[in-house]
Design goal:
- By secondary structure, the chain is α/β, with parallel strands linked by helices.
- It has 2 domains: 184 residues, Rossmann fold, CATH 3.40.50; 146 residues, Glycogen Phosphorylase B (Rossmann fold, 3-Layer(aba) Sandwich), CATH 3.40.50.
- The chain is built from 15 helices and 13 strands.
- The strands form 2 sheets. Strands 3-2-1-4-5-6-7 form a 7-stranded parallel sheet, sandwiched between helices. The protein has a 6-stranded parallel sheet with strand order 10-9-8-11-12-13, with helices on both faces.
- Strand 2, helix 2 and strand 3 form a beta-alpha-beta unit.
- The termini are close together.
- The relative contact order is 0.13.
Amino acid sequence: MAKVAFSIGTNAELIKIFPVLKRLDEYTLIHTGQHSIGKLLDLFDLPEPELTLSAPPKATTKFFFNTPKAAIWSLGMIGRIRRAIKKSKAEVIAYHGDTMSTASSALATRLSSAKGAHLEAGLRSGSIWEPWPEEISRKIADKYSKLLMAVSQGTQENLINARVRGRIVNTGNTIIDAALEAHQIGKGVVDTPDTEYAIVTAHRQENLRSEKRMRNLVEIVKNIPIPTYFFVHDNTVAALKKFNLYKPLANKVKLARFTNYPSFIQWLANSRILFTDGGSIQEESLVFKKPCILLRKKTERVEGLKTGINFLTDMNVQFAIRKMDEVLSDDWKTPKFKNPYGEKGVSKKVVKELKSA
């Protein structure tokens, strides 16, 4: 069996791989320090990383809107990860998703003697700017990996069309297991409103940097006709205040802070409708069959749009309002669909592939 190490940087990465870690008897965890993951490790009853390559931030992330700083950090991290790989003596280095840590891990692994394994491979929005810089990170990770674990039939086809050199296998997305297991952790612990409500999240750089997009986003949210809870990130609050949108929004909806993943999953599972510019929440909406209005111009989860419960707005206020009214009407029923990103048990498939890589 191959000796496996995981190189991760963010909370989202840890959330998506914790079911995999739970099913492995032995592994090395390398943390780049992009996010502070200590609370999640405790929550999922996982050990501290054996190797931490930079001091984790006290805020949500290290960079907020500082693109040059982020780029310099990412380049410097390649050498650190490469040295960590050598120290770990791992034969397979797994990395997840589309973060700066993901791209740095893929490049560092390619420069080492280990095999790179990309979890959540093959996602594409078709535009390097939507979302930025995630689309670039995905392409880098896919190009330089020896094992690519596609999350769906469509992403597998994306990888084939890109003529990647690594071995491609369609495992499905580990977010399926993560969401279901987090739901069990939070059951009976988290209280949510008894009446129907909407939840909102927004943190994409292409939205937060644009006053026009933020004004459109706020206009959409203000028109939600049921009680609404907007779960805000630190950088979201900063953008709202920058464009003088914080108070107008706070007067209309409840601004809430994220506590932990199982808590948020309870809120999502019990909600009536979701509004988001995020990525994973699109897949989580499919797990719990919740209609999801996408506050984006493009999405890399294009297969979700075919289910009939994910709707891409192109940041068009009137379309978003029309679609939410349709979904919230008494006549609307959740369509039947097969989740394109897999069913319960994806993590076992991933573990099998890693062990035999």
